Amino acid sequence: MVFSSTIFLFLFLPIVLIGYYNPWLKSQGFKNGFLLLASLFFYAWGEPVFVFLMMISIMITWILGLRIDSNRDKAKFFLTMAIIYHVAVMFVFKYLGFAASQVGLLFRREINVGIELPIGISFFTFQMMSYLFDVYYKKTAVQKSVTKLALYVALFPQLVAGPIVRYNQVAEEISDRSSNYEDIVIGMKRFIYGVSKKVLLANYVAQVADNVFDYLGNRSVVITWLGAICYTLQIYFDFSGYSDMAIGLGRMFGFHFTENFNYPYISRSVTEFWRRWHISLSSWFRDYVYIPLGGNRVSKKKWTFNLFVVWLLTGIWHGANWTFIVWGLGYFVILLAEKNLLSDNKEKKPVVVNILSWLYTMVIVNFAWVIFRAKDIKSALEYMGNMIGIGANGFYNAAAADYIRNTFVVLIIAMFGATPLFKKFIEYIQTKKIAWIESIWVLLIFVISVLKMISSTYNPFIYFNF
Question: What's the domain range around 11?
Fold first, then answer.
């Protein structure tokens, strides 16, 4: 079940909201139990078998968390046991098939391991691991109720595609939370903005990107750049749209999730880009890998190694393919170069310098997304070669003109939507006490999004695969 579907919008969500806010059963225990059952049903709708795997992992996490807290002499042993278990589960379901195929290539024989990938396994596994780390480091109190821990892990707004919520961020709200009319309205608006990002923008540019990337003939330079830009916009609106929906849904039920995106495409360095993109993941690796390894408070050689490990793992986390590993290590090289070559001077820079810095960043990001999107390294190299004219079918042709003519308006809207300008406009009309304009706008884009959902079956979520 996906958020941007009519069955979720007009069946599952209304039933859950009515049940949650019923006028008779108002205790926190009922609300938690009801929300947990709804979340398990939500996951079981698409993963009727793997919901049991998630429940087993939650139980093991709960038991080992209690052991870490109650037996500090052996806390490191129990933490190690927990990490081995979670890494092993992720390896079996996410990476075993890839590893087996690579072994097969080594011995010149085909080895196929047909194991289905549980949706969102990387997200809920990382949440459980962060909980165990925080209990071990005494950053959070152990949760003695297995149902409360299960609610933290399985809460349906953030279950299958994040953001990766830390337990200490929602611990108090799991035990005692309240929500009012304002929370529900704010949550609904945020959810609708997320739906519109996904349905009206991400899905549209995704079809252009798919057509260009999957086109087997010779591509012109302009078409390859158009495809890369469309995918760059697709993955942003797809994932940030989902995060908006998750944050909005959480707000409806009294949970306040942290932001996961902060307009990454206005960045003027790759370092800044990664401070703004998928914040919950980059902060996870910072707090649980980079800093425990020593961070930057070590020798330059050790610091370089720490950075290498973080970006190798970041690439691997995203998927079982050499493209993800190369993508992660590519960012390691670029970030290492930036940290060594770029100044940390905070002084205001000339406009020309800022524009050039932004262009440099976006070129790097676009090429990186090509590697991320490609089915294999060969395809990535071929596509990037076409972008710079190698093997391309000319610079500009009739096909490019057709693509640009058909996508121009949506591309301009999408590029505008990837900046803070719309947010600033909303803030402006609120200060002028004409906020009703936003209400009409939200209602309009919701109606258009629903009509689009009904008329189209194209509705994939990129990060469901991770």
Answer: 6-177
157 and 209 part of one domain: no
Say if 444 falls within a structural domain: yes
- Cβ atoms of 115 and 97 within 8 Å: the answer is yes
Candidate from 124-128, 204-208, 424-428 with smallest mean pLDDT: 424-428
Q: Are residues 195 and 143 in the same domain?
A: no
Among residues 86, 256, 278, 318, the one annotated as catalytic is 318
Pick the closest to residue 124 from 8, 247, 284, 287 (CA basis): 284
> Among 160, 220, 209, which residue's Cα sits nearest to residue 40?
160
pLDDT tens profile 296-308: 889 999 999 999 9
The pLDDT value given to residue 237: 96
Last residue of a domain, one of 127, 152, 177: 177
- The answer as to whether 50 is a domain residue is yes
Q: Is the pLDDT of residue 283 over 90?
A: yes
Determine the Cα–Cα distance for residues 180 and 209; give it in Å rounded to an integer: 42
Looking at the 3D structure of the chain, how many domains does it have?
A: 2
Asked if residue 163 lies in contact with residue 239, where contact means CB atoms within 8 angstroms, the answer is no
Is 318 annotated in the active site?
A: yes
